[in-house]
């Protein structure tokens, strides 16, 4: 760009924006409406919300950090102890959700490894494939064939039947 500027082509912006003069002496009704709205609706709601927030900050509850104590298994509950049955069922459902998430995480890791490695996925992702096989086998052994409406009692019976079959197979080998 040349040193001598063409001041007509590149005009300098004004240093101050001119203030428009009011041409009427009638007040603007929008200002009154905004002020009335603020005092009638906004101020009380804001006050109540800030009060509630102050009370809640004393006892913060982070639901995603909730830790449940381990409860006795269904096999450890006494007969007729329905509260223990309920707690064991809730514990079983939490354990099932955790195991499902573990399987999903391992699947995602394997998919990421396959995406990253491309044609060499069979060599470089062997550990992830083996881990997925182990995790899915363990999940299938514990929760397989229970269906969507499976519960702790049917899972316990399935494990009992599997143990009896393994014991029978071991006796037949001897």
Automatic annotation (TrEMBL):
Q: Which UniProt keywords apply?
A: Electron transport, Membrane, Mitochondrion, Mitochondrion inner membrane, Respiratory chain, Transport
Protein name, per record = NADH dehydrogenase [ubiquinone] 1 beta subcomplex subunit 10
Q: What does this protein do?
A: Accessory subunit that is involved in the functional assembly of the mitochondrial respiratory chain complex I. Complex I has an NADH dehydrogenase activity with ubiquinone as an immediate electron acceptor and mediates the transfer of electrons from NADH to the respiratory chain.
Cite the source lineage: Eukaryota, Metazoa, Chordata, Craniata, Vertebrata
What ranges does the record give for the region Disordered, renumbered to this chain? 1-24
Q: One GO CC annotation, please? A: respiratory chain complex I
Q: Which locations, inside or outside the cell, does it occupy?
A: Mitochondrion inner membrane
InterPro entries to which the protein is assigned, alphabetical: NADH_UbQ_OxRdtase_su10, NDUFB10
Instruction: Indicate where this protein is primarily found.
Output: mitochondrion
Report the sequence similarity comment from the record. Answer: Belongs to the complex I NDUFB10 subunit family.
User: Per UniProt, what is the membrane topology?
Assistant: Peripheral membrane protein
């Amino acid at each position: 760009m040349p040193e001598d500027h063409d001041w007509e082509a590149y005009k300098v912006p004004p240093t101050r924006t001119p203030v428009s003069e009011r041409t009427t002496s009638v007040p603007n009704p929008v200002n009154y409406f905004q002020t009335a709205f603020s005092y009638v609706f906004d101020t009380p709601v804001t006050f109540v919300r800030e009060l509630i927030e102050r009370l809640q900050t004393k006892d913060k509850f982070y639901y995603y950090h909730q830790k449940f104590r381990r409860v006795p298994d269904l096999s450890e509950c006494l007969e007729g102890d329905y509260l223990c049955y309920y707690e064991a069922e809730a514990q079983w459902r939490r354990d099932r959700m955790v195991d499902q998430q573990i399987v999903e995480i391992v699947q995602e890791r394997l998919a990421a490894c396959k995406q990253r490695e491309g044609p060499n996925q069979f060599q470089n992702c062997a550990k992830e494939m083996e881990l997925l096989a182990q995790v899915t086998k363990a999940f299938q052994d514990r929760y397989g064939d229970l269906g969507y409406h499976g519960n702790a009692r049917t899972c316990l019976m399935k494990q009992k039947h599997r143990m009896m079959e393994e014991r029978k197979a071991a006796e037949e080998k001897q």
